[in-house]
Amino acid sequence: MGQRDRALVTFAALMTRHETEDLGAFAALALDAGVTPAELSETITHLAFYTGWGNATAAARA
Question: Which of 12, 14, 27, 30 would staple 35 via disulfide (CB 3.0–4.6 Å)?
Answer without folding.
Answer: 30
